[in-house]
Amino acid sequence: MLVLNEVQTRDALPFAELIAAIETMFRSDCVMPVRHHHEMEVPGEADAVMLLMPAWVPGDHIGVKILNLFPDNHLRSLSTIFGSYLLSSGKTGEMLAIVEGGELTARRTAATSALAARYLAREDAEVMLMVGTGRLSLNLMQAHAITRPLKHFRIWGRHIEKTEETAHEARMLGLDAVAVKDLAVATGQADIISCATLSNEPLIRGEWLKPGAHLDLVGAFKPNMRESDDEAVRRASVFVDTRAGAMKEGGDIVLSLASGALSKDGIKAELAELAHGKHPGRTSAHEITLFKSVGAALEDLAGAILAYRRVSGQVSH
């Protein structure tokens, strides 16, 4: 059985191939049971979350991710997310690989947002604003640059020192990135705004969005958390990775449904419908689009299969 560490997992999941693998999986007959979501008390700190996410393609592969999310780990200079993915044969049940879960999650999340942007962002998008400076930020910028001709990256975070550090790391990856302090101005100039934070209050206000902007909401993974306000939802054509997940767990959707800013019918499509061509995605250059991602188990399965095949030599590198 293969065991892939963080570096091996990263190397086995180049974004172009991962985006394609996730798109293919969204078009497949993958089965996704409701994931187990358990909140766990951590004395003196924010509650932690354990996620169990199974998925399988009948007769092909079976997988399950076990993920622990500890929001206050940054106080210990540790990653917020730890986990592993167990991949098995869908024909025999044989266990094939254990893939490092944190890196798999970060890369498949970014790749899914980039896939959505292929349908929803303007084809000539050049400026991206990254809101948040955590692990996902660099992944999101790199992934979005695969599907759109991005030239300039602006990064906003609550702490300017960390923001400057993230911008430096992005430049080391070859991205034209700078830290910004004025979120409203940066939002108004961006073609793509990607948010990956643990915010409980709206960061992006709808009045700031320019015509043609695409808003990519990745954080706010609980129903009481949000990164955008009701006005952003009102102004935008709203899309989600999965309706079931977003309407249950994604605060930007849940809270807007509760306030009346959004109706269930107001969700234009989920990612599988975009992948199957059942909805065209963006329909005009001036349309504002919003994509809410809460994560789907099929994304992890697609990534784990790709990593296993690349490392085991089943596909060319």
TrEMBL record:
Any one GO MF term held by the record is:
oxidoreductase activity
A cellular component term, taken from the record's GO annotations:
cytoplasm
- What Gene Ontology biological process does one annotation of this record name? carboxylic acid metabolic process
Look up keyword Signal and say if it applies.
no
Question: Per its UniProt entry, which superkingdom is the organism in?
Answer: Bacteria
**Signal sequence interval, chain numbering:** none
- Keyword annotations for this protein? NAD
Recorded hits in Pfam families, A to Z, give: OCD_Mu_crystall (PF02423)
Entry's family note: Belongs to the ornithine cyclodeaminase/mu-crystallin family.
Q: Which NCBIfam families match?
A: PRK06141.1
What PANTHER family is this protein classified in? KETIMINE REDUCTASE MU-CRYSTALLIN (PTHR13812:SF19)
Q: What is this protein called?
A: Ornithine cyclodeaminase
**Species of the source:** Neorhizobium galegae bv. orientalis str. HAMBI 540
